[in-house]
Design a protein that fits this description.
The complex is a heterodimer of chains A (198) and B (585).
Chain A lengths: L7 E2 L4 H4 L21 E2 L43 H11 L8 E6 L6 E4 L6 H12 L5 E3 L3 E3 L3 E6 L5 E3 L5 H7 L2 E6 H9 L2
Parallel strand pairs in A: 3-9
Antiparallel strand pairs in A: 1-2, 3-4, 5-6, 7-8, 7-9
Chain B lengths: L1 H9 L3 H6 L5 H8 L5 H8 L3 H10 L2 E4 L7 H7 L5 E5 L19 H10 L5 E5 L5 H10 L5 E5 L2 E4 H10 L5 E5 L2 E3 L18 E3 L9 H10 L5 E3 L6 H10 L5 E3 L9 H12 L6 E3 L21 E3 L7 H8 L7 E5 L3 H11 L5 E5 L14 H10 L5 E6 L4 H10 L5 E6 L14 H10 L5 E3 L6 H10 L5 E5 L5 H10 L5 E5 L5 H5 L10 E5 L5 H10 L3 E6 L11 E6 L12 E3 L1
Classes of the chains: A alpha+beta (198), B alpha/beta (585).
Chain lengths: 198, 585
């Protein structure tokens, strides 16, 4: 997946509100002194295309201009110039911590082949379950501590470090991603059996 | 050809000999077949008609730096005996998401011609091309002699395409899959190599994420006795690596898998033994998730190491220092900036033969700047590594004085790529532009072929470049310059310029049009987020019919504004496969 955190917004109104010494309506060439800011969106919203508007401008630090907003916060498409592949790899590397691998196998009962997902892309169970629902085109239903997942034929389970098959959702998210080795979406009666035994 | 040889043979008249080219064509072809460099071959083909013909008949490898500069039909007409093709497609800035997804550079049109004209094609090396699974399958079944496939920074395919290659290419010697936008659907493609298949010499799947079947890999490695390059992916553990090395001590290039498994002391010993049996390793890479305590297992294999790629291994400075002590022959080193200046000092101390250094940022967006290299590290390397001629350096701060020191220590730079990651950042100690830094580079490094500039730069930088960089072939510019004059200086001053790529600079139509004649001697020009208009581009297209002038529009931008412009010389005319968002003027 292309790293979508590269998108940004170009605020077209900024020039109009910018305080300048020139007469209104006079157009200045885009010089190094201009301090046009770019707000960065870490998650791409569906309205903002990845290469939206003009891909120019970024905070340009003027000479000794201490009022310039900190440039480090600005994110621009394609900058710094690092290949997407390398960027995506390094994002994973950044998170120190044991981890049992970045990509987890996900199997679904009855499916002809397995899939792989990167758990670090998600921040919560609901994001993960949404992704699984999209990937396998099914509904998983709501988690409940008492009966597990009811309201659907599918139950998400995972194998932990000890080799035991556990129900997804019982432990806090952080604990889950550090102990999960692989995922399996169980189907039908087998799934219900697991739910009942809890 | 044959008739001329007969004529020579039948009339050994010395006068006739001296009147025509001294060698009969067959001999000339034989001699020329020993020439490999395509630049040499281009020169040869310009000598005279006989030499042109002899050259074209004897050429077996063709290199095409821009797939749209020529058509496959033209290539096939000129070179009838090609066995190996290298093709580059998209502009380099496509690596950074600046080129629209469906821009082009699809290999299929070429394959369709090759299957007719070069049925004995053996090798295909692609960079920034689009290749679909269908094309890969077509390739695998249509060319019975196909031996070698290398894909770098390509996209459009999935692991299913690799499965087709593994299944059908009976004579495959090389499968090299690097940093591609691949749809990874799993590792089962590796299992598609038949059990009878033994010809593999190069296997690189380091950048594929999925697990492969280890038993299959182990059997493949053990039966391919000529395997010399093996680069596995992260899914391969240390224990598995040891087993692979035991089967292939003859390896010259190794890319390890993950370097972080918990090993027993016995396993540790076994791994060390395996490495010590590998006496021929000159290139080492991988080391994903490296845990420094396992690095000593590598030491026995490092005696002949010339290229160490640690750009996916987040090592600390001290850990790198310990490793480098064992690598006295190192010529090329790639690291992450987690090593910090301390690590670079160790480089300066331990690697006197170093010729190339690349330092990549682990955290390009600077959210938590825990690690970085500074100008101090750069100077430290230059102090100890006087043979340095290639540098790629990502940092957040730099000074003019530091760069001046670096090039004084190392005047032989051929490739100087400095990326100060904060756009428009001045010399942080003086707050001045970085003009003098790059001025020093071009004045001192007379052999400079490639330059990437960054930081706060005025037109002065480009005046320096135009005045001094007489061997410059590739120039990359971003967020720099003050006016059209800057770009004009470069276009007028650099006689060997071939590739110019510019983004976010205040260069407009006047600058663009000042290079009219120049562009025909260049491979390409890229300009995005500058001050170009459609009219300016139209004027260029009108004046220079042998250039393709492509304008990529973005949604919602000003009608007359030319957001992204790509200009390149071509003998194939305007291309017909451009998507609607790309206008060819």
């Amino acid at each position: 997946m292309e790293n979508k955190s590269m998108s940004y917004e170009y605020d077209l109104n900024l020039k109009a509100t910018e305080l300048r010494l020139a007469l209104p309506g006079s157009d200045e060439p885009d010089e190094k002194q201009s301090v046009t800011c770019v707000r960065s969106n870490k998650r791409a919203s569906s309205e903002i295309s990845e290469e939206s508007k003009s891909s120019s401008s970024v905070t340009i630090a003027g000479n000794g201009d201490s009022d310039a907003p900190p440039p480090a916060k600005a994110q621009v498409v394609g900058w710094p110039p690092i290949r997407s592949y390398r960027k995506n790899c390094l994002q994973g590397n950044k998170n120190e911590g044991e981890g049992v691998g970045r990509f987890m196998k996900v199997s679904m009962d009855g499916a002809p082949y397995l899939r792989k997902i990167d758990l670090r892309v998600y921040n919560s169970y609901s994001e993960l379950l949404n992704a699984l629902e999209n990937m396998f085109k099914l509904t998983i239903g709501a988690y409940s501590e008492r009966v597990g997942y009811h309201g659907s034929d599918y139950t998400p389970t995972y194998e932990d470090k000890d080799g035991d098959w556990m129900l997804v959702g019982d432990v806090p998210w952080e604990m889950f991603i550090s102990s999960c080795k692989r995922l399996r979406i169980m189907k039908g009666s087998e799934a219900r059996g697991l739910g009942c035994s809890l | 050809m044959d008739s001329e040889w007969k004529r020579f043979r039948d009339s050994p008249n010395s006068e006739e000999l001296t009147r025509r080219s001294s060698f009969p064509d067959e001999v000339l072809e034989r001699v020329l077949s020993l020439l490999n460099s395509h630049k040499d071959r281009s020169s040869v083909s310009l000598v005279c008609k006989d030499w042109y013909n002899a050259e074209r008949w004897s050429r077996t490898h063709v290199f095409i730096g821009n797939c749209y500069s020529v058509s496959p039909e033209i290539v096939a007409r000129r070179f009838p005996n090609i066995r190996s093709v290298t093709l580059k497609g998209k502009p380099r800035f496509s690596d950074f998401n600046l080129v629209p997804e469906n821009w082009g550079a699809d290999i299929h049109a070429w394959l369709v011609v090759f299957v007719v004209k070069y049925p004995f094609l053996e090798e295909l090396r692609l960079k920034r091309m689009v290749i679909s699974d269908e094309s890969l399958e077509f390739l695998s079944v249509s060319f019975p002699n196909f031996k070698s496939l290398s894909l770098l920074s390509c996209d459009g395919f999935s692991t299913n395409g690799l499965a087709a290659i593994a299944t059908h290419c009976k004579n495959l010697t090389e499968l090299d899959i690097q940093e591609n936008g691949i749809d990874d659907r799993g590792g089962s493609w590796l299992s598609c190599f038949p059990e009878s298949f033994t010809s593999l010499e190069v296997l690189n799947f380091a950048n594929l994420a999925s697990d492969v079947n280890f038993d299959v890999l182990e059997r493949l490695v053990s039966r391919c006795k000529s395997l010399r390059v093996l680069k596995v992916n992260q899914s391969i553990s240390l224990e598995q690596l040891q087993r692979l090395l035991a089967h292939a001590p003859q390896l010259t290039e190794l890319g390890t898998g993950s370097f972080s498994q918990q090993l027993t002391s016995h396993q540790d010993e076994e791994l060390k033994t395996a490495f010590s049996n590998c006496k021929n390793i000159h290139t080492l890479s991988g080391l994903w998730d490296v845990k420094a305590i396992y690095l000593p297992t590598l030491y026995p294999a490092c005696a002949n190491l010339t290229f160490l790629n640690l750009s996916y291994a987040a090592l600390q400075g001290g850990e790198l220092a310990k490793l480098l002590v064992h690598c006295p022959q190192l010529r090329r080193l790639w690291v992450l900036d987690t090593v910090e200046d301390k690590g670079l000092e160790a480089v300066g101390l331990n690697c006197p033969l170093l010729e190339e250094l690349r330092v990549f940022p682990i955290d390009p967006y600077g959210e938590e700047i825990a690690h970085e290299v500074t100008e101090a590290g750069f100077i430290a390397v230059s102090n100890g590594c006087r043979r340095l001629h290639y540098v790629l350096y990502f940092c957040r701060q730099m000074t003019n004085a530091a760069v001046e020191t670096v090039v004084r220590n190392c005047p032989n730079f051929t490739h100087f790529r400095l990326c100060i990651m904060i756009p428009g950042r001045p010399d942080y100690t003086t707050n001045e532009p970085m003009d003098e830094a790059f001025g020093a580079v071009v004045k001192t490094c007379t052999k400079l072929q490639r330059l990437s500039v960054s930081g706060l730069l005025t037109d002065l930088t480009f005046e320096y470049i135009g005045k001094y960089a007489k061997n410059l072939e590739t120039l990359s510019v971003a967020f720099a310059g003050s006016s059209d004059w800057g770009m004009q200086c470069v276009l007028e001053g650099c006689p060997k310029l071939r590739k110019l790529e510019i983004r976010d600079c205040p260069f407009g139509n006047k600058a663009l049009l000042s290079g009219l004649e120049k562009y025909e001697s260049m491979r390409s020009l890229w300009m995005s987020a500058c001050n170009l208009t459609l009219n300016g581009c139209r004027a260029l297209a009108r004046e220079m019919p042998r250039l393709n002038v492509e304008v990529m529009k973005e949604d919602g931008s000003d009608e007359s504004h030319a957001d992204k412009v790509y200009v390149y010389r071509t003998v194939a005319g305007p291309r017909r496969d451009a998507p609607p968002s790309v206008l060819t003027l």
